[in-house]
Amino acid sequence: MVKAVVLGAAGGIGQPLSLLLKTNPLITELSLYDIVNTPGVAADLSHIATPAKVVGYLPPDDGLKKALTGAELVVIPAGVPRKPGMTRDDLFKINAGIVRDLATGIATTAPKAFVLVISNPVNSTVPIVAEVFKQKGVFDPKKIFGVTTLDVVRASTFVSEVLGDLSLAPKVVVPVVGGHSGVTIVPLLSQSSHPLPSGFAKEELDKLINRIQFGGDEVVKAKDGAGSATLSMAYAGYEFANKIIRAVKGEKGIIAPTFVNLAADKEGGEALKKEIGSDLDYFSAPVELGPEGVVSIKSLGKITDAETALVKAAIPELKTNVEKGVSFVGASK
Ligand code: NAI
């Protein structure tokens, strides 16, 4: 039995993500919440011949509470997306309040659920969820995740393009660490399961790193005002949600990079802080998942001097983003 809930289910990410969750035979209940259109989306998905019972909820009549009752997995893609020229941080003004209010609902109704935050800026919205949970006395850092999987998916795709063989894309594994915005996105290409071509020039490497860091901009530009990545994000969000579900069902050894509070694994978190030379409370690192959430936070392992420099360059922005999220909840107490 798994009850999954999508908050922001009628949106560009929410709809295809809900479709993918509906195809998962391990999900028995799928609740769709949004401020608009969920009855239609739910009715449509409910005709698909898979086990999940799909119900749509809107704000009236305690819709959020009803959607969240009994939830084990909550995914949040609610909020506004970027337009050309915007950074993820530009979304803070609107999305911070949306995420805070939804987190309050989860902390009250489903405090033990796994919470997967997609809404940007992830570097700030994850601390917002955590602070709300702390205020409500239900904070468990092992169960709150910032979804950075799209950066990992992009890295696999772009590396396979460089290797001239897209059929490799599903097999290419590149850890992407740090955070989820521009320079805070740090792909560890030296650890790629499929090494880059020998003699790959430094300029080419820099171009590839930049493409992974700013891949979202390619989509924002191509959509020309109509939003940011939705379909690839739904795919990535589902991939991460499915890892959580598999871990909950007892599968061992599932590891994925994700943006977490480093208190989720005291020992691993402290070791990582030493490794990156910072007292940051949040970082995206490879995390082992288990039935109760984070089992361990992994070391970044052996990285090149250039990658160490990228990690260092990510820290100031990450710090600012995290503090912004923390103080937003403090200020709105
Ligand atoms: P969208 O505008 O198509 O959909 C957002 C949905 O949220 C809408 O249906 C809207 O009605 C709903 N919503 C707004 N306020 C709400 C509330 N208080 N409660 C429930 N639902 C509410 O936007 P899209 O493209 O789906 O993007 C959603 C978010 O995901 C954005 O913040 C975007 O920046 C972020 N994103 C994150 C990525 C990541 O890698 N983590 C990648 C791409 C986008």
Automatic annotation (TrEMBL):
It is an enzyme of class 1 (oxidoreductase). InterPro entries: L-lactate/malate_DH, Lactate/malate_DH_C, Lactate/malate_DH_N, Lactate_DH/Glyco_Ohase_4_C, Malate_DH_AS, Malate_DH_type1, NAD(P)-bd_dom_sf. The keyword rRNA-binding does not apply. Substrate binds at R82, R88, N120, R154. PROSITE patterns: MDH. GO terms for cellular component: cytosol. Residues 3-146 form the Lactate/malate dehydrogenase N-terminal domain. GO terms for molecular function: L-malate dehydrogenase (NAD+) activity. Homodimer. Its EC number is 1.1.1.37. NAD(+) binds at G8, A9, A10, G11, G12, I13, G14, D34, N95, I118, S119, N120, M233. The active site is at H180 (proton acceptor). Pfam families: Ldh_1_C, Ldh_1_N. It catalyses: (S)-malate + NAD(+) = oxaloacetate + NADH + H(+). Keywords: NAD, Oxidoreductase, Tricarboxylic acid cycle. Residues 148-328 form the Lactate/malate dehydrogenase C-terminal domain. This is Malate dehydrogenase. One of its GO terms (biological process) is tricarboxylic acid cycle. Belongs to the LDH/MDH superfamily. MDH type 1 family. It comes from Lentinus brumalis.
